[in-house]
Amino acid sequence: MQFTQAKNVMTHTPVFIGPEESLIKAAEQMKAKNCGVLPVGNAKGIEGVITDRDIVVRAVAKGKDPTSEKVKNYMSKHVYSCFETDTLQKAAEEMRKHKVSRLLVKDQAGAVTGILSFGHILRNGSSASEVSRVVELAVGRNAA
Question: What global pTM score does this model have?
Answer without folding.
Answer: 0.84
